[in-house]
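Complex record, two chains
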Amino acid sequence: MSRDLIWWLLLAALALAAMGLFIADQVQKANQRNILLQGNCEEAAMVEAVRSYKTVVLGLAVLSTVLGVSVSALLTRRLQAELYHGTPGTGRRFTVGVLVSLGVVVAASAIFYLFDRSCLHAAVASEGGLPANVASRVMSLVGNMVPNFWLASTLEVLLVTFLSFFALSRILRLLSGQVARLRRA
Amino acid sequence: MGAPILIAVGGSGQHTMLSYLRLARLCNLVPARLMTIDADLRQGDSGQPTTASLIEKQARVGFRDKVAWEPVRPLPELNDPQAQTFESLLRPVPGVETDLFSALFNQRQREVRVVTGFHGHPSVAASTFRMFLSDGATGLSKLFKEWISAGGEQRIVVAGSTFGGTGSGVMPVLTSYIKDWCAKKDLKLRLGGVIQVRWFDLGLPDQVTPEDKEKVDVTSHDLERNSSCLVEYYRRNLESMFHNAFLVGHYPHASRKSTGVEQQPEHPHAVNLLAGYVAYQLLHGEELSDTQGLLGLVTPDGSLEQHLHFPFGRSRRPQPLARHIETTNGEIALHQSILNVLSAGPPSGWDVVEPYPPFFSQLVQQSQGSYGGPNNRHTEPAATWNEHFTMQKEALSWLAAVRENSFDIKACQFPEELVPPARDIGKLSVHEPHLWGPLHDVFRTVLRRVQPIEYGDDPGSVIRRSFYTVRQELENFLEDKQRRAQ
């Protein structure tokens, strides 16, 4: 196994481990908050639970891009289209990386939601929860335009994931180009 | 020590030289300086290429560096352009001279069209070549004025046969001339010989018209007569001709179709392969450097790929031919993938890391070219890369043809995993398993070490050297891998 392959696999493993630890830590904190509240979910507690959830999800969105970028870099190493078929890379590897990031953040958010025992479930419930336009506005830039918590959150996660992926990929491309030039020199 | 020189005399000599060149490609060797001596150096018509044209192509495309190659027609200056036969060339004065000429040469010999070869008549070849030497031997000036050097020992190997016309007649005259010349100049010479003795029966092509039958210039009987006489001559005079020599042949004889007077195509065969190997050993090897006399008669067997050894990898330790063939398979996979990448175009801007190794940008920059496919003949560096690549594939196809043509004597029966059938050569999936790892891994590891920027500014040299450095680095990579595995 070549050295750069090991580095990329290591980076992907680190991203996964960081996400796992982050989720575990946040689940523990949410459960502690729940114990303090003794199951009494008033509006302020529900808003706090939603804010906490969105913070975690957006954090996961950034972390998942590291995983997505690693997958994309691993695909780039293989150069399947170029080596075997003589066809140019058409952004497929970039797209796969973005989709992996999105898939991972969706899965991680769902896992976090399932394990969260704070007032989050009560806050987003259709009956007795926060009004839809209130829940969607918590820590949100698009909540005013999209009065639905799940829809607004999904749009924001998409945006953050994509921007984060794009920024990280450009930085890495620049760095790898510089490293190549340095090696050449 | 001056660069070694291989002189091919006549058709069999050229077969030995072609085989030597193909082995040099398969084993990544630097070939010697080359000289071919043959009256018939025609390039052939549109059909099958001649041995002369194949050698010319090998030299033109070159190896890591261009190959020095000099074709020589062993004929004296023809004042009369109509003089095409031996008799018209000699122009004996009527009277005693004509009588003597008729006594020495029969009618068939007198009427040999020397401008197209000596057609199995050694006495005609020897006489004509002697005239050529007396005439100043301007064709050989490169050999004597530029190639043979005074510093250290000069190795020269002369390859030819005992059964044809040119080799049988020219070789004894040429070797004596070289030896005398070097002795006069007080040069240290080691003159080796690769002499093919009769190893095939000459048959007619399957479908032959009566007119074609008449065109067949040499018969099995002629071969037998020439070979018997010359082997006896060599037995008596070898020491005055060569320092060391090998006879190469096979018995029972193989069968070969005559191609007639108008054609001199290549006949890939185990005997020629072995002759090429012997030439390599005499030119470059150390084992035979102190040997003297006739070293023996060599004959091919069924698994030559295990018995013939050539230097390999960084250590240059001898490895069997099988190892080199395996590496050539891997090399073909690598070259195909490099061509694919060149044809895919510049690296995609969407990728999260630089997709190509720096090798590609350097190659394109140093060759003053651009990305482009091998089918676009004017796009460099792909066009030149493809030309070298074709030569490597041809070398492997030649091995497949050797296997096929040597079936009757059960020699060189390479396994198909090692030498794929000719129709499969060039298919990436066929060659990839010989890389000892995933293609993309080997691709990156090998190309990381190839730096076209270091190979100068001449685009042709940059591409050629990059091509052969890929092979060298692949050898180094495989050698390291094998060492680690052990």
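Note: Chain A is about 80% helix and 0% strand.
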